[in-house]
Batch of 3 targets.
Target 1
Amino acid sequence: DAENLKVTKYFDDREIPNVTDANAWAALSTPGYCWYDNDSSTYSETYGALYNWYTVATDSLCPAGWHVSTDDEWITLVDYLGGLTDAGGLLKETDTTHWASPNTGATNETGFTALPSGNRSINGKYDNINDYGYWWGFPEYSSSSAWYRRLNYDHSNIYRHYNHKNNGFSVRCLRD
């Protein structure tokens, strides 16, 4: 089954810093990850880790033979699924076990099983668990921001945006 990444080490066995302090997170310009609310026992298995973009940019996050999904790959996927309006629903886990109600349009026809893992904002605050799922894309948008995708509990759309690299978002790896 498809799932969000939850590694704490790069594929070459180097540790990724687990940054729990909000001020330290906000000041990062280097790789870091966290668990939602700094609570690995509650959130790690289901939702995976939240990584800042500096971790994504190392090109060592996914296992050998895999890579972080690119902005172009996201665009191709959305086009294949019929466009921005319905693609989100085709990617989301069905029902409201994890997603807030009404989980609009959720069919998971793709097997992607997108979950609303929330995010960690640039000020270190955790937010949006059960409401939104965010996934980094590659490459960066600018020196301070990078592409990501967002799915909402109350829409079947998928949203393409860019945001500050210090945000903590989920990651999906694709086979090379």
Target 2
Amino acid sequence: MALEEINDKYMAQHRIRLTKVQRSYPSCSGSLAPGLAADMHFISDVIAFVGPACLFALEPVARLAAYWNTPIITGMGDQPPSEGEISVASRLLRRYNMKNRSNTAGILNDKSKYPTLTRMSYCQCRLTKVFASIFKQFSWKHIALILDRSDVFSLTVGKILEQGLKKGGMLAFEKELDGNEDESFDNYLRDASMYARVVVLCVRGSLVRKFMLAAHALGMTRGDWTFLDVEIFQGSYWGEHDWKAGDLDDGLARKAYEALLRVSLLQPTSDKFQDFADKVKQRSVEDYNYTISEGEEINFVIGAFYDGVFLLAMALNETLWEGGDIRDGRGITARMWAREFSGITGVLYILLL
């Protein structure tokens, strides 16, 4: 969709037509992604990369793009890897923890290493600031953190929050669990309750429900304790965080969830975005024979990729009008940074950190 529109709006006046070169891989792979990027660079001679979305595939591709002086735009950049790539994730998380203890800007913030990379989406590293503002608002100073090391999204978010809470002197209790094991969640909650009355659950969606049911059984959902969790996007792909599971515990779960405060990404609600979402659903059927489930949202990230392609086109258009080189990745990227424009997802400003 975006490519068709930018060709008509920007590229046609230069007698240029951009075409898509697409490669895919089955999971978030830090080993496959750079190989595919090399094929696209040397064989297809691409002038820009759009994606990957996943952080641990994006990082090595962004390094290569910097060496090739090729622009790279992603609508995400923080999606955790698959469980098969957890060793890669662990190495990057260790690097992040060692080098950025006093910096919450994220793994990819070093512009000297990634000078042609532009990210259009949120950064999980900002979650520390979000939670800090909540804790300040309610004067909460002693926090318990429970995280699921078997779920990579939970592990990634949990470790980032752990670092921020330790830095702020608020982490009173921290415990890791293996969400694949059939454990008694009561014991984790009893231990946490000895140190704090605010409990952050960095666990997969199905475990949030189990923890809240256990908390309800222990009498911890009557207002004396508060629970928080993180659900960046809604949908089964990201894990179901809802209280409703269609079983006999639904009534208890619904009551228990009254003690749960959820942190989620703001979903655009403008008419412009809704029109865009309708077109995406239509094109998914026409182009890919894929029907998006009824009630499933077209999330922010899809819009962010769309806006990223438009931002790239604006920079290419300006470069061409000024007689510049459209293969000067650093020059094109510089035109995208420190810039404000109105996109599908709202008014965007690309930060130059």
Target 3
Amino acid sequence: YYRESCHLCEEMWQHLRDIQTERNFELVRVDVDSHSVLQARFGALVPVLIGGDRIICNYYLDPVALDRYLAGIV
């Protein structure tokens, strides 16, 4: 999840896009402020990277956590 005008969100997105070119996985951006339920649950955590129903990391990309997640689904 991301938020407009969030520099941490843009940083994480760029890192994820770079990694995506090397590894094949789907990325979907969802504006946390577009749904009140999401805003209440994740608003203080943005950016937050979700895989399935679990939080992989938030605020900053954790490459180790992402690698572990991808290893479990690939």
